[in-house]
Design goal:
- The protein is of the alpha+beta class.
- Helix content is 18%, strand content 37%.
- The chain has four helices and 22 strands.
- Strand 17 and strand 18 form a beta hairpin.
Length: 271
C-alpha cells in the first residue's frame, strides 16, 4: 500500500513540476511579437443569433485569448450595465457573470470596472444616464452615446466629467493601451489574465478581448493586448479589471471565467 502511494505521489509530483516548468517557460519577460500573437489565427465566426456579432479564439504556444467583434450599426443593439437601477433602487451586490446574463438577457457580457474589496466600483459607471459611481481621473473609461444612427462607442482617457455629459452608459477601466492606432508603452510589464475593449476609429465597431492565464497559459501584457486589438481593427483600446476578475461570455460560443469570483461591474449587449 505504501509502495502504491509512493508511486502515485511521484507521478503527481512529476506532472506538477512539468506544468510548473512549462508555465515558467512561457512567462518570460520577452514581449510576444505580432506574428506570435496572431499567427494562423482562425477566421471570425458569426453568431447564429445575429448578423452583428462575431467570435475569434486563439490558443497556441502558451497564449490563449478570445475576442468578440460587435457591429453597433448593423441592427439595433442595446447595452446592459451592472450595477444598475431597478424600480428606482440601485442593485450593486457583486455577482458572477452567469447571474448578470440571466438578469439582463445579455447575449454578450464582459467584466469591466475595478472595485474595492467591499465591492465598490473604482471609477465611472453610468447606467441609462444615471451616474452610479463617480470618475477616477487617473483611469480610462469606455462610454456610449446614442445618436440618429444608433450607438457610438468612445473612450475617455482620464475620466473627465465633461466626456460623459451625453453618455447613456459608461464603464470605467484601468488605462488606455491604444490611442489613434498607436500602442502605449508602460514602465512596468506584467503578464496576466486580461479583460480589454477596443473601438474602431468611427466608434461603430466594438471589440472585447479576454486573455486567460494558468498552467500552460502565460497571460499577456498591456502592449500585447494592444497589439491584438490593433491588428483586429481597433483604433483605441483600454484595459478593464483583469486577473481573477477576467470574464467573457458570448451565447453558445465563449464562456470564460478565471475564477468563481463575483465581480462588481459588467457590461452586456442584447440584440
Amino acid at each position: 500500500m505504501d509502495k502504491a502511494k509512493n508511486i502515485a505521489f511521484r507521478i503527481f509530483f512529476s506532472a506538477a513540476m512539468l506544468a510548473l516548468l512549462t508555465t515558467c517557460a512561457t512567462n518570460g519577460k520577452t514581449q510576444a511579437t505580432a506574428e506570435e500573437l496572431l499567427h494562423d489565427a482562425p477566421k471570425w465566426e458569426k453568431a447564429s443569433w445575429t448578423d452583428s456579432a462575431y467570435a475569434l479564439k486563439f490558443d497556441k504556444a502558451g497564449i490563449r485569448y478570445s475576442c468578440v467583434k460587435i457591429d453597433l450599426a448593423a441592427e439595433p443593439v442595446s447595452i446592459q450595465a451592472y450595477p444598475r437601477k431597478e424600480g428606482g433602487k440601485e442593485v450593486s451586490k457583486p455577482i458572477r457573470i452567469k447571474k448578470f446574463v440571466e438578469m439582463t438577457g445579455a447575449k454578450i457580457a464582459i467584466n469591466t470596472t475595478p472595485y474595492t474589496k467591499g465591492g465598490k466600483a473604482i471609477g465611472i459607471h453610468i447606467d441609462r444616464g444615471d451616474k452610479l459611481s463617480a470618475e477616477a481621473k487617473r483611469y480610462s473609461a469606455l462610454y456610449f452615446e446614442r445618436g440618429e444612427n444608433g450607438l457610438k462607442a468612445k473612450i475617455s482617457e482620464n475620466q473627465s466629467a465633461d466626456d460623459f455629459s451625453e453618455a447613456e452608459f459608461a464603464f470605467g477601466g484601468f488605462f488606455t493601451i491604444l490611442k489613434d492606432g498607436e500602442k502605449r508603452s508602460f514602465a512596468h510589464t506584467s503578464y496576466d489574465a486580461r479583460s480589454a475593449a477596443g473601438i474602431s476609429a468611427d466608434g461603430k465597431t466594438l471589440y472585447l478581448l479576454s486573455v486567460e492565464k494558468g498552467f500552460f497559459k502565460r497571460g499577456l501584457s498591456y502592449p500585447e493586448c494592444a497589439e491584438i486589438l490593433l491588428a483586429l481593427g481597433a483604433d483605441d483600446a483600454i484595459e478593464f479589471d483583469g486577473g481573477s476578475s477576467t470574464s467573457l461570455f458570448m451565447d453558445g460560443m465563449i464562456d470564460i471565467s478565471e475564477s468563481p469570483r463575483k465581480n462588481a461591474a459588467y457590461m452586456g449587449l442584447t440584440f
